[in-house]
Amino acid sequence: MSGQNVAREWGESPAPGVGATADRVGAPRWGAGLHMLLAVVQSQGRLAFRSAGPWITLATAVALAAGISWGGATGRIFYHYNELGAPIFCLLAMLFTATAARREHSEHVEELIGALPYEAAPWVLGRFLVQYLIWLAVSVVAWAAAGAAVVLSGHPLDLHALALNWVVVVPAALAYATALALLIGSLARSAVTAYFLTLLAWLGGPLFRLLASRSTVFLPAPIFEFFAGVRVAPQGATGFFYNVDLVFFNRLVTLGIAVAALAVLLLAVARRRRRVALPYALLLGLALLLVAGAAREIQLDWGLRYKTVAAEMRRVDAAEPWYEELSGGAVMSIPTYPVVTDDYDLTVVLSPAHRSLAARANFAVTNVSGEPLKEIPLTLRQNFTVTGVTVDGEPVTARRQGDHLFLPVPLAPGETKQVSAAWEETVWQWRLQDGPRAAAHIDEESVLLPAHYGWYPLPGIQRLTRAVGQCSEFLPEYCPLTPRDLPVGHPQARFRIRVSGTDLHIRHSGDGETAVTTGLYLVGTPWPEEELHGLLVSVSPDNRVQAERAAAEIAGLMAEYEAMIPRQALGPVRLIQVHDDLYHGTPWLPTAGSGATPGSLLIHGQELARYWPGYFADTYGISVLALWWPQYGFTVEQGRLYRDFQRYMEYVRTGEQPRYPDTVFERLLRVEQTAGREAALQVLREMHALLPAGPAPEDFEAAIGRIMATADHGGGTTR
User: Fold this and answer.
1) Gyration radius of the chain's alpha carbons
2) Going by fewer Cβ within 10 Å, which terminus of the chain is more open, N or C?
3) How far is Cα 656 from Cα 643, in angstroms, rounded to an integer?
4) DSSP characters for 449-510?
């Protein structure tokens, strides 16, 4: 394009050595700048649509959006498009923006523009706006295609959630992508350098996010969610924002980087044209301050989570010598509980705004040790402040030892006393796995109080947490912790539960206001409950279709296991969708029947969104078996039994032996090989009949002895 054509495109009358008419030169600077900006947008827009870039990107984006949403509800779009579609879309936008900038550089357009008596801003901002608006328009079409694919596949479309997701994710991501690509394409000395740096800039966000997710409080992963991702999107797949504050500050970081990139380009153009650069330098400084401030807010939020982990580590380390002394040096062993508790009357007042609860429980305590007790031992997580305790109506002062309360009241063998206790405190505890996740949590959007957290008085002396896994060599104080690696709970107990202070739907181990369970949990969700395929399901509307499929598959698994061993049902089986920020065992895995959430499957919304036929049967069959065998028993030995009982039933269903079989599984396999599979299953039926209090290892050995003796005398069964 010639200089005269450029000027003509911008409404200028070319004049030798000047490039603009006198009246234009004398016009007010803001008016002239606006005229220049509009002219740049007009001319650049025409050039852009003549190129193939926007059309290639549009076709790719539409195909991606339609493909990933076909056959799924809106939540599937959020999960897959934010994880796959948006980054690819932004990559194409960056490459074609850099290409356009390089074309102008190679055709010396900027040198021609330099003859015009205007500041750098109209030229730079005009180019940015053209590219940015093009990519925004393309994204709208792509998202419309995604919505259309959902409708055409016969699934419900949450239009509001779709629009909200686009508003939060796309504009900031495209501002980041366009600004960086424009900067690189305008300043790079060669096309190869431009494309290399563009690719590097695109990789920067995901790469830093990956590195940050492996470590640390210093560079939290949510800082680097520039394009999209699970921590940014208001996920219809989950029904929640990952974290509203983190989303807000992440978007500020993303937009701040975009403004900083434009400021650098403005500075470069102004310097080339010997124009005033101070305003652009100030803009760059403000943008960097915005990025630093928003990143700092994310780091403080993340750091607070890590602090709770570090505090937990110190607590565990301090308690270890005492536990070793109690267990005779066997760190993994748990002392015999001298008391049991039953007949709880529990009142809980939640305060979501303060992430706290205040509770009172009246319950019976019975000495089952066979020996007189000088005091009554109970377990209640130490972060709770005990505000009052009575025993048989008389006030007492509890002695605290870490997570344990000792009531100074003697208890004879078989004697029962009525205890009343009140406690309160903030509930905000985190575990390190795939970034910090809440192990227990109360806020306006969700509640998670698993039994293993020790949020109400448990019988005897119990370990609530131990340290596991390998510590980072750089961050030894941030070793991972797991909340479900030790048996926590009690023999079957009755509960009456009343919960107030929240509009959330509260689920627990029972039904209504009563529960008979080996461990009481509370889960709060925004959604009502419905029955699907025999399960009580509570999920976001967007995940309703996926949940129905999952419920059908889980019901099928349960039927297969039921044919092996009839299940003792203490209450309804639930499928509950929880916030992706919550830790309910192993991330991405549902848990069932454990000391954490007896009788319920907790699952992240994203896990539901990625469902495909056979997914649960293939991936989580053994998790469903926790409905038959609690993942942890009342003792460590029971826990080991139950784990291998699960493994054997899964082996019967699939024919696949576990990768690391233990002694119990091997014993059952030998029974099967000697006396037939039915004989091995009969052993498990006898063990199952002893729940919820037992079986113990000696019960297992006795059952094997009886059944093998029957087989030896000709009464065995065949496989």
Assistant:
1) 32
2) C
3) 16
4) E-GGG--SPEES-----EE-SPPPSS-GGG--EESSSS----S-EEEEEEEES--SEEEESS
SS3 675: helix
Contacting residues for 523 by C-beta, under 8 A, at least 6 apart? 446, 447, 448, 449, 506, 507, 508, 576, 578, 597, 600, 602
Phi, psi of 140 (to 5 degrees): -60, -45
Alpha helices, DSSP H only, in 493-584? 544-564
Could you tell me the CA-to-CA distances from 487 to 35, 369, 521 in Å, in that order? Answer: 73, 19, 15
Structure token pair of residue 143:
């998202």
Closest listed residue to residue 216, CA positions, set 305, 155, 156: 305
Q: Which of 606, 528, 582 is nearest to 239 (CA)?
A: 606
Number of Cβ within 10 Å of residue 717's Cβ equals 15
Which residue, among 178, 122, 150, has the nearest Cα to 65 in the 3D structure?
Answer: 150
Closest by CA to 364, choosing from 413, 416, 409, is 416
Pairing of the two strands 458-459 and 530-532: unpaired
Q: What's the CATH number for 334-469+480-627?
A: 2.60.40.1730
Nearest to 700 by CA among 682, 717, 712: 682
Distance separating alpha carbons of residues 264 and 270, to the nearest angstrom:
10
Q: Which two tokens stand for residue 426?
A: 């903030």
Note whether 356 and 424 are within 8 A (CB).
Answer: yes
Rounded to whole angstroms, the Cα distance separating 240 from 579 reads 7
Which residues neighbour 476 within 8 Å (Cβ) at sequence distance 6 or greater?
none
End-to-end CA distance of the chain: 84
Q: Measure the CA–CA gap between 495 and 348, rounded to whole angstroms.
A: 12
- CA-to-CA distance for 460 and 257, rounded, in angstroms? 55
Contacts of 5-13 with C-beta under 8 Å, sequence gap 24+, read 6/43, 6/109, 6/112, 6/113, 7/112, 7/116, 9/39, 9/42, 9/43, 9/46, 10/36, 10/39, 10/40, 10/42, 10/43, 10/116, 11/35, 11/39, 12/116
* Whole-prediction pTM: 0.75
Tokens describing residue 298: 């994310």
**Residue 109 token pair:** 């357009």
Distance CA 151, CA 10 (A): 45
DSSP string, 606-662: HHHHT--TTHHHHHHHHHHGGGTS-SS-SSHHHHHHHHHHHHHHHHHHH----SS--
Six token digits for residue 412? 């004879």
Q: Residue 239: helix, strand or coil by DSSP?
A: coil
Cα–Cα distance measured from residue 125 to residue 507, given in angstroms and rounded to the nearest whole number: 53
Residue 40, burial from CB neighbour count under 10 angstroms (0-12, 13-18, 19+) = buried
Phi, psi of 445 (to 5 degrees): -100, -25
Among 338, 348, 334, CA closest to 422:
348
- Reading the block at residue 701, the tokens are 């050995």
- What pLDDT, on a 0 to 100 scale, did the predictor assign at position 540? 82
Read off the tokens for 369.
């040790």
| Angle between the N-to-C axes of helices 159-187 and 191-213, in degrees from 0 to 180, rounded to the nearest 10 | 130
Q: State both tokens at 210.
A: 């990956």
> Domain extents for the chain?
3-302, 334-469+480-627, 636-715
- Please give the Cα distance from 317 to 466 (Å, whole number): 9
What is the dihedral sign for C-alpha 133, 138, 144, 150?
Answer: negative
Question: For residue 261, what is the enclosing H or E element?
Answer: helix 244-272
As a whole number of angstroms, the distance between CA 318 and CA 249 comes to: 37
List pLDDT tens digits, range 338-353.
Answer: 898 999 999 999 999 8
All residue ranges of the chain with pLDDT < 50 are 1-28, 236-239, 332, 469-479, 481-485, 585-595, 716-719
User: Distance of alpha carbon 201 from its chain centroid, rounded?
Assistant: 26
